[in-house]
Design brief:
about 140 residues; mainly beta; eight-stranded antiparallel sheet
Length: about 140
């Protein structure tokens, strides 16, 4: 019997292993999460045809989250009038529970930039994607 070859890169990070905490509460009704940072970087030119330095713009963080209506309605309790737009800035913690290396990312000073409901006939779980504004992302 041949030995089973070892996995070269070990176990992959996967969606089933993440814990997302919003307002300090683990959130089970999340079906998608996206967060990113962008920074403009520009070559500066002087004499000659090659750059002489590089300028860096501000780092802008943004993201989106897809939530079930059950989670949305729970979050509405943190708002003075039920609107997601009125929830004060909060943090989102994302923990990736990989046995090889547990990783935690923190989305800081998050706010919703839109609110509402999308549904149609046949929905068995009403979900919606909400855009987020984020001050910064801590990867470590």
């Amino acid at each position: 019997i041949m030995a089973q070859p070892a996995l070269i890169n070990g176990k992959a990070y996967d969606f089933t292993q993440i814990i997302v905490s919003i307002l300090g509460v683990p959130t089970a009704g999340i079906t998608a999460l996206n967060y990113t940072e962008e920074q403009e970087k520009t070559n500066n030119f002087g004499a000659g045809t090659r750059p002489v330095s590089r300028g860096h713009g501000a780092i802008e963080a943004s993201g989106s989250i897809e939530l079930s209506m059950n989670e949305v309605e729970s979050l509405r309790d943190a708002s003075p009038d039920g609107s997601l737009l009125k929830i004060p800035a909060f943090n989102i913690t994302v923990t990736y529970l990989n046995l090889q290396k547990v990783v935690t990312h923190k989305l800081k000073n998050v706010e919703f930039t839109n609110d509402g409901v999308e549904t149609s006939q046949g929905d068995t779980d009403i979900k919606r994607t909400f855009d987020l504004v984020i001050s910064d992302i801590q990867y470590r």
